[in-house]
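name: query_chain
kind: protein
chains: 1
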Amino acid sequence: MSSFSHTSSPIVQVKPLGFPWETIDPFLFCAYHDDAYPKANADMGPAASLAGRAIGQDFSRKDGWSMYHGEKVPGFPPHPHRGFETVTIVRKGLIDHSDSLGATARFGRGDVQWLTAGKGIVHAEMFPLLDEKNDNPLELFQIWLNLPARSKMSDPHFTMFWSQDIPRLTTKDAEGRATEVAVIAGRLQDAGKPLAPPPDSWAAQANADVAIWTIRMAPGARWTLPAAAGQGTRRNLYFFKGQSVSIGGQDIRSPAAIEVRADRAVELVNSGSNDAEFLLLQGRPIGEPVAQYGPFVMNTQAEIAQTMADYQRTQFGGWSFDSDAPVHGRDPARFAMHPDGREERPAETPEIVGG
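structure:
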């Protein structure tokens, strides 16, 4: 870890990226998946040998991809959550979602799913491979955003942000080099009307100052990240693609998590010859104790024990699907079927890389 304590630098600290990425309150962690899946087989899995993989718990990145907890189709079969939210940003490929509320969805290509687990939900996230002639790349972030104590037992809530509806800003510097920003949460001037977070989210509190943005900069591009609006806000920039960048005058030459002062505007420069990409996570800390046991995040160990007992007793609504790793067929069209039976089908648009 490198630290920058002198007052002239907007950088607070720099840490190398691991797996998952370290975050700061109100975020719990961020998992970045970038899998180069091969052609698909007839079962929507990889048309490749699975020999040498710990099937059911494969995080090997062998040949550039993992099966994770999937056995035939990569992904994450049913598992419970309580006490926080998942924000899943899919940049390439598709995810098939199913949950104990009865909701299903196929989303990707720039779409975002925001799921408030609240008092408890079970969901599956499978990665169906549909193209039998070409490779099936998958790239996504899954961000865990904590809930304050008052909201940990709120009702679960399922939200879809389709790619076409996500506010975006494209701006050019004095040399005409572009920077593109996708605004999943928070406000950015000239990016359009912000999306509404789920009602019980910390991000729904105006003074929480939560922002989740992806930033892509052309080679040589310059862009000034504006100061955050709130008092006490903390901000991390994750530099995850590109050769080198300058942040507030400090050179960064390898993937890193950079905490920057949120109360100051910061100039970003892509000093490399390829596009540079960042994920920004910011927010005012919740500032409450965190007790975590796997997929359960509460405030005390007693609440964790109660959560485990509740899950044993209720299974958080149980599992109504025939499969323990459900996928939604070979039709690539994206959709969401909500717990109340309402269906959404966004217009099909070209994949937005970096969206």
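note: Residues 301-314 form the longest helix (14 residues).
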